[in-house]
Amino acid sequence: MANHILHINSSARTDGSQSRALSEKLVQRLSHDATTVTHRDVGTLPPPAVTENWVNANFTPVENRSDDQTATLALSDELIGEIEAADTLVIAVPIYNFGVPAALKAWIDQIARAGKTFRYTENGPVGLLENKKAFIVITSGGTGSGSEIDFATPYVKHVLGFIGINDVEIIAADQLMIDAEGTLKAANHAIEAIAA
Question: Is the entire prediction scored with pTM above 0.85?
Answer without folding.
Answer: yes
